[in-house]
Every structure is written in structure tokens, then in C-alpha cells.
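Reopening this one. Same input as before:
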Amino acid sequence: MTRSDLIARLAERYPQLLAKDAELAVKVILDTLSGSLARGGRIEIRGFGSFSLNYRPPRIGRNPKSGDRVQVPAKHVPHFKAGKELRERVDYPPH
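Same output, byte for byte:
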């Protein structure tokens, strides 16, 4: 599902919500989530999952084209861990 699919589905499911209002709601939620992660925070949505940051230390990598060694700097990368309810819902076929 893409961002525009989500906006369209929200507008379809809630007829009193204009498409531009659904778009604004999705934008505000996603901006708030990414802003929290950018500040080093952790996000937990019960029943869905949690977002956090993982630290990747500096390392020596290789340029795939030339084979030269390249210094890759340390960085933080987003990490998602699915919640129990989400894991159970996508674990198909049902037992």
C-alpha cells in the first residue's frame, strides 16, 4: 500500500472526510513519526509494532564497481519490530 492508496482508502471509508483532509492527516502522522525517530525517540503502536533506531558502527566496505576499499561511516538506521497481534494476523494460513 502506498501513501496515496492510504489517503484514498481513508477518504473512501470516511465520506465526511475530504480527500485533502485525509492527505493532511496522513502527512501529519508520518511527519510526527519520522520527527520522533530523527530526535532519537522510540515509537510504539500497540498491536502493530515499534520503531526504533539501530546503531551501525563504522566499517570498511568495497566499491562494487571498482573493488576499491571504502570507509563507511557510522550511522543510525530505523528498525521496525512487528507486534504480537500483527505477527498473528499475517501468519497465514490460520492454524
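So the earlier flakiness isn't reproducible anymore. For the record, The first strand starts at residue 43 and ends at 45.
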